[in-house]
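Feature request, filed as a ticket because there's no other form

It would be nice if the structure record came with a short human-readable summary line next to the tokens. Right now we just get the raw output. Example of a typical job, pasted below so the devs can see what we mean:
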Amino acid sequence: MNLGSPFLLNISASKENFNKDIFPFNIPSFSNGINIKIDTPVTFFAGENGSGKSTLLEALAECCGFNTEGGNRDHYREIFQERSKLAQALRLSWFPKTSDGFFLRAESFYGFTKYIESVSNMRAYGGKALSKLSHGESFLALFSNRFEQGIYLLDEPEAALSPQRQLAFLSIMHRLTAKKDAQFIIATHSPILLAFPNAKIINFDNKLQEIKYEDTEHYNLTKDFLNNPNRYFKHLFSD
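Raw output as currently delivered:
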């Protein structure tokens, strides 16, 4: 595939700057500091709940100047506040530096859609009010109509997407990265999204390390469950 290059090349933070007695520096995956080299246009953060994926993604959004409730630089609706301790500790390497992009968090997306309707022309989002669409439809309307170029930080986008819509999203990602003007960093639990070809997967369980798709817990557990769900039920439903 003819995919582009990332804008953000490295995410780092020295553990010497961490106060390991307070959150989020006491998260096990951050115990050795942070040093993530990015050499692909699509990077996934994978791992269990509470492993630090969303925490790091939100700090990246702060560093990019995006609204941490969702949006881009134009959607910064609140008075500027001091960056979080983690955002202050991060050092980002870019080439070239971009200020274009978007931060999406599934849990606050509805509030973002209401804000968009108050300030934007809905023709730019496919002609329909996002809040009048289903959660998944509004996600895809945003992805299809407003994702063009820049860096896209997405926190569990699969939360509103059916398996079929996740496949549609993979197609959008491919189209944008093939044009060589978009980069995605995605925190996800979805084995469908994680299968995106040639993506880098960073595992957050215990320590930060690159992992192959077939070695992720998401892939193996889903595959094993689908092959033999009764074996799981016998364990889960036992008295």
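Something like this underneath would help us a lot:
Strands lie at 8-13, 34-37, 42-46, 91-94, 101-105, 150-155, 182-187, 200-203, 209-210.
The chain has a mean pLDDT of 84.
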